[in-house]
Amino acid sequence: MTGKGPVLPAFARSAGRRLFDLAVVMLSVATVVFVLLRVVPGDPVLILGGLDVLDREVIARARESMGLDRPVAEQYAVWLGNMLRGDLGLSLRSGIPVTELVGRALPPTLQLGAMALLIGVAISVPLGVAAARRAGSPADMGITTFAILGISTPPFVIALGLIYLFAVHLRLLPVAGYVAFADDPLGNLRTMAMPALTLGLVTAGVLVRIMRRSVIDELGEDYVRSARAKGVSETRVVYRHAARNAAIPYVTILGIEAGVLLSGAIITETIFAIPGLGRLMIDNINQRDYPVVQGAVLVVALIYVLINAGVDGLYRILDPRVRAGEGQ
Questions:
Q1: Taking 80 as the threshold, does the pLDDT of residue 46 lie above it?
Q2: Rounded-to-5 percentages of helix, strand, coil across the chain
Q3: Where do the CATH 1.10.3720.10 domains begin and end in the chain?
Q4: Treating both helix axes as pointing N-terminal to C-terminal, what angle do 277-286 and 290-318 enclose, rounded to 10 degrees?
Q5: Residue 136 region, left (φ>0) first, then alpha (ψ -120 to 50), else beta?
Q6: Is the distance from CB of 50 to CB of 326 less than 8 angstroms?
Q7: β-bridge mates for residue 90, sequence order
Q8: Which helix (H) or strand (E) holds 104?
Q9: Mind listing the pLDDT tens digit for each residue in 289-298?
Q10: What is d(CA 301, CA 22) in angstroms, rounded to the nearest whole number?
Q11: Spatial distance between the Cα atoms of 17 and 39, rounded to a whole number of angstroms
């Protein structure tokens, strides 16, 4: 009992801190987005109306119906109160609830991010370990060059290269468009292949370097030399010991990259005409549709925070010292 007693209170304190941090982050994001959208030049009424000849009475009635005639502080208070109740408002352009619009756009973005992350991990782990085992060799230099190219090449350049190769030259994949997985699983994978590979190659470039550096550091530790002195095979030493411990910093960057994929998806979704959150935000930023942009950004921020919480959970699995620290 004495060993388990302090663990639950410590876990409760940790969970409480995370919930508090989540509330602070979401409130900060909500405030910043609300303010930034209103300092950007452009009147939603005039942009949505598309006419320069609207008389003042029409404009006034439109602003009143949208709630834009109220003081900014009152608009913020009303919106924040509605948000706390789960109501993100209605689109100024279409009148459709923001939760419905975000709900439609969320699945393509999550699928794109998940596929890109899987591609990045599948490429980076074997290449990073291979480069670390052959540090300084031509193979290491080749893998490092690949990683640098992945990091430094803009996603839209990779996207255009993939379109030329797979869509124009080989005619294997469609240039753009989206098919829901429920409607046509194979068609969905064909339309998502190039966007996911675009983001996956960028992610792989970052993760390869992290895995390579982490494994090299672990291979120089005393426990690795001891394992080798005991006759443990090199493959077991690398993959069972060094790579496992190297996964801790790797998981940290993996969590960050998972969040970056959400922002990187904006350009990629636009290029490949995927109706995800990125494209939803771009379209409605241009139209100054405040509620839609605010709702989409809040969802992205929430996903990012949840990803960080997931990374913390993986720490407890990979590093027993974190679990031990909670019991102290």
A1: no
A2: 80, 0, 20
A3: 100-319
A4: 150
A5: left
A6: no
A7: 97
A8: helix 98-133
A9: 888 888 888 8
A10: 10
A11: 33
Q: At what angle do helices 138-152 and 98-133 cross, to 10 degrees?
A: 160
Q: Is the dihedral of CA 83, 87, 88, 92 positive or negative?
A: negative
57-89 pLDDT, tens per residue?
766 777 777 777 788 888 888 888 888 888 888
Indicate the SS3 state at residue 60: helix
Residues near 200 by beta carbon (within 8 Å), at least 6 away in sequence = 115, 116, 117, 118, 119, 120, 123
> How does the average pLDDT of the chain come out, rounded?
83
Closest listed residue to residue 238, CA positions, set 255, 220, 253, 256: 220
The residue to which tokens 């408002």 are assigned: 89
pLDDT of 253 strictly over 70: yes
Give the span between the Cα atoms of 119 and 239, in whole angstroms.
20
What's the CATH code, domain 100-319? Answer: 1.10.3720.10
- CA angle centred on 315, ends 313 and 317, rounded to 5°: 80
The reported pLDDT for the residue numbered 2 is 47
Quote the CA–CA distance of 109 and 284 in Å, as a whole number.
Answer: 16
**Whose structure tokens read 């027993």?**
320
